[in-house]
Design brief:
Length: 140
């Protein structure tokens, strides 16, 4: 289960209120007893097209991954698909998330990542752990 801290949810809601363009964020989650708590997010560039990977600077990825490694946090990717009629992670999303996991392992971090996708009315979440994709429930 994934929970999002209130002030972080506010930032996400602000991004979501601008429905005309997609957003991407990176963040960190703390592992609690029975859930993961997302405690921090940083917004990446908004975009005009759907080239999601282009909107997350490599330096920011590495910064977040190092921060997670140091603090035993789990990196989080949050983005939107408001231009689509159905909510589904795309092959580009999967590719991007796996490249981030590989980068994490490369710098000595864990093979783990949480990803959250927001659509117009709904949301979905998943977690990568040691190469496996796990479905996650998200509590707003
Ligand atoms: Zn996407």
């Amino acid at each position: 289960m994934i929970k999002i801290r209130l002030n972080v949810m506010k930032i996400i809601e602000e991004e979501l209120s601008n429905r005309s363009c997609e957003f991407a964020m990176l963040g960190v989650a703390e592992k609690k007893d029975k859930y993961f708590l997302i405690t921090k997010v940083v917004s990446c560039e908004r975009e005009t097209a759907n080239s999601f990977t282009a909107s997350v600077p490599k330096e920011l990825q590495i910064k977040i991954l190092k921060y997670c490694r140091m603090n035993e946090f789990i990196p989080v990717v949050i983005h939107s698909h408001v231009h689509y009629n159905y909510l589904k992670f795309s092959p580009i999303d999967t590719e991007f998330e796996q490249s981030m996991v590989r980068a994490s392992v490369r710098i000595g971090g864990k093979s783990e990542l949480i990803s959250i996708l927001f659509g117009n009315e709904e949301f979905t979440a998943r977690r990568w752990k040691n190469g496996k994709e796990l479905k996650m429930f998200l509590i707003l």
